[in-house]
Automatic annotation (TrEMBL):
Organism: Clupea harengus (Atlantic herring)
Keyword Ligase among record annotations: no
Disordered: annotated span: 191-270
Chief location: secreted
Gene Ontology MF terms: serine-type endopeptidase activity
Stated name of the protein: Inactive serine protease 35-like
Cellular component per GO, a single term: extracellular region
Compartments where located: Secreted
Biased composition (Basic residues): 195-215, 243-255
Database matches in InterPro entries: Glutamyl_endopeptidase, Trypsin_dom, TRYPSIN_HIS
Keywords recorded for this protein, A-Z: Glycoprotein, Secreted, Serine protease homolog, Signal
Leader sequence residues: 1-24
Presence of keyword Transport: no
Length: 429
């Protein structure tokens, strides 16, 4: 499905949501964000590791994922095993690394997670027929919440803002399980810009900073205009500007991009990246896909609105059982692509669904919309990370699915610790 008028799409969506909201008034708390007792993640020890070589190549498809049937045969992990899987590695922009081991507290109180969910019939997934993705080509909509929370990762993936300085994405976009990918050495994040800077009549001598002036200590690659000037913009961010050679003499490329209505990006350097040890190969072959998530800390805070994390025990109990996410798919360069679909299968840690997606959308934040406890206000929250197309072991055979890693109470606590430095301040409500 190609680009369609966004106003038509949003009008239909708003009508559907309005009907659901009315119906939801007569429903029970199944339409409300559940409240969870979140365990605490405490740091035990941090040790220095040798610098990474950034020698890995980005992965297109993941293989050998332990599917629902496989997971049903796994024993429940012990506390020590969970602590080992939730220990994490931090890599800094200069390539140095540390390993932090953690201790879990209050774990028993947070184990109200539904047990191993039963498997259902499956069908092979192929991308064919009508493409159900929607291109949010109009900048008026792509830079508005919730679409504006989606960011572009310089390694070719997507991500979602979970704080002014933190981006949640897929671990395989940064690390292949053995080493960090080559593109992560100078990792950057592109945030959608709402508008270009206005200039005074003096060609930049009006209010605000001029084009070439930067505040003390500001990094050159933290500014989109500087990126264009010094050639520092990642290759993935250049597509939108190709072929735009017409226009008034003297107009900057960034201004032409803004006037065209197409999204443009402000690229910001990543200060450090944190990846759970459960993702690393050799940690546990059966659960690596369950830990396909990472947090990127940006050098500079963003003014763009971010999206909170949430926890739901079962997608089946949600309105229509649908999930939503937006990303920058490879086949539509520099265009924000939105989709929604129903979740067909779920396990403790993974969501199996048939959302149409292409490479580039990996790392997108999966979200749903529910009511706040005790309120009539509806709120969107991230409940998972889109991992992408994966080959899953099912009864000794390989089948392909689009898979997302769900946010569990333990992962919620870990991500909260990464973002805030203290998981005790976070509540899953």
């Amino acid at each position: 499905m190609g680009p369609i008028p966004v106003c038509v799409l949003l009008s239909v969506a708003l009508c559907v949501l309005a009907v659901r909201s009315v119906n939801a008034e007569d429903e029970d708390d199944s339409y409300t964000w559940p409240q969870w007792n979140v365990p605490l993640v405490r740091e035990k020890r941090t040790v220095r590791l040798s610098s990474t070589a950034f020698s890995a190549h980005p992965q297109g498809e993941l293989h050998g994922t332990c599917g629902i049937e496989c997971q049903q045969g796994l024993p429940d992990p012990s506390v020590s095993e969970l602590e080992r899987l939730l220990s994490y590695e931090t890599v800094y922009e200069n390539g140095t690394r540390t390993l932090t081991t953690v201790a879990l507290q209050g774990l028993n109180e947070a184990q109200a997670w539904p047990g191993k969910l039963p498997g259902h019939s499956r069908r092979k997934r192929e991308v064919y027929g009508v493409d159900t993705r929607f291109t949010i080509a109009d900048k008026q909509f792509s830079t508005k919440y919730p679409f504006s929370t989606t960011v572009k990762i310089s390694t070719g993936c997507s991500g979602v803002l979970v704080s002014p300085k933190h981006v949640l994405t897929a671990a395989h976009c940064i690390h292949d399980g053995r080493d960090y990918v080559s593109g992560a050495q100078k990792l950057r994040v592109g945030v959608l810009k709402e508008r270009s800077r206005r200039r005074g009549k003096g060609g930049g001598k009006g209010r605000g900073r001029g084009r070439g002036r930067k505040r003390k200590g500001e990094e050159e690659n933290d500014d989109a205009d500087d990126n264009e000037a010094d050639g520092g913009e990642p290759e993935e961010g250049k597509g939108e500007r190709q072929g735009r050679r017409k226009g008034r003499k003297g107009r900057s490329r960034s201004r032409r991009s803004a006037d065209s209505g197409q999204p443009s990006f402000r690229w910001t350097t990543v200060k450090q990246t944190q990846v759970p040890k459960g993702w690393f190969k050799g940690g546990s072959q059966n659960v690596s896909a369950d830990y396909d998530y990472a947090i990127l800390e940006l050098k500079r805070s963003q003014k763009t609105r971010f999206m909170d994390l949430g926890i739901v025990p079962s997608i089946k109990k949600l309105p229509a059982g649908r999930i939503h996410f937006s990303g920058f798919d490879d086949d539509r360069p520099d265009q924000l692509v939105y989709r929604f679909c129903a979740v067909s299968e779920e396990s403790n840690d993974l969501l199996y669904q048939y959302c149409d997606a292409k490479p580039g959308s990996s790392g997108s934040g999966i979200y749903v919309r529910l009511k706040e406890p005790g309120k009539k206000q509806w709120k969107r929250k991230i409940i998972g990370v889109f991992s992408g197309h994966q080959w899953v072991d099912v009864n000794g055979a390989q089948q392909d699915y689009n898979v997302a890693v769900r946010i569990t109470p333990l992962k919620f606590a870990q991500i909260c610790h990464w973002v805030h430095g203290d998981s005790s301040i976070c509540k899953a409500t």
